[in-house]
Each structure stands twice: as structure tokens, then as C-alpha cells.
Amino acid sequence: MNTNNQYDFSSSSDTVLESARKIRLEKQRKRKAKTRDKLAEFMSADIHDSELGIIPEGYGGISYLTFLIFAPWLAGTIFMFFYVAGGNMETFRSLESSTLLTWVIGYEVLAVFILLLIFKKLVIYILSK
Q: Are 13 and 96 in contact (CB under 8 A)?
């Protein structure tokens, strides 16, 4: 038997594994760069009032002021009724909370809600491209 025709499989398998690892790392690097570029594009996007569709044209100032005052108060009232009072009207009436406390609680509830919406929009944006 001639030993010159036998292959050294250990060195060729190491080369194949190294090649596969390099290819996998390159794909991973490209995917990270693509995600980073999408994130930068998302964060630099302009948002206009007309895209929201809830602000009447020309009434932006008064609408924002109204939302700033009443939306947190309403959200705080709803939160306190369902979460604190457990949906019981008698318990809700017995709560002695100030309007400012209700507004602050609602402000925090809305802030969390808005942050979750922004995160959802970011994830959808990244996955769509």
C-alpha cells in the first residue's frame, strides 16, 4: 500500500471549520452593522404633527395644552379606579387624592405607554427592512 496517496483529514477539517467560523462571523458583523444603520436612521427620522392625525391643522398649541392638562388627569383617574380601587366605586370615592397626585400618576402611566409604543415602532421598523 502506498502511503503517499492518503490524505491528512485533520488539517483539512480544521481549515474547513476555520472557514465556516470566519463566514459566520462576517455574516454576524454585517447583520450588526445593518441593524446599527437602521437604528440610526430610525432615530434621525423627522416626526410631523400631520403624521399623527389627531391634531387639527392650525390648532396645535391649544390642542397640546389641552392634552397636557387633561390626558394625564384622565389616565390617572382611570388607573386609580381600576388598579387602586379595584373597580369598586365606593372604594374609589373614599380615596382622598388630590388632582395633582392624580395628574402625576396619569403622567407616569402615559409616559410608560408612550415609551412602549416607541419601542414597538422601533422593533417593527428594524424587522421590516
A: no
Do 115 and 93 share a domain, yes or no? yes
Asked whether residue 24 is domain-assigned, the answer is yes
pLDDT of 30 above 50: yes
Cα Rg of the chain (Å, integer): 29
* Same domain, residue pair 126 and 74: yes
**Gap between the Cα atoms of 62 and 52, Å rounded:** 16
* Claim to verify: residue 66 and residue 113 sit in the same structural domain: yes
- Quote the CA–CA distance of 102 and 53 in Å, as a whole number: 28
pLDDT digits (tens, 9 = 90+) for 48-90: 656 666 677 777 778 888 888 899 999 999 999 998 888 888 8
Q: Which domain holds residue 76?
A: 57-129
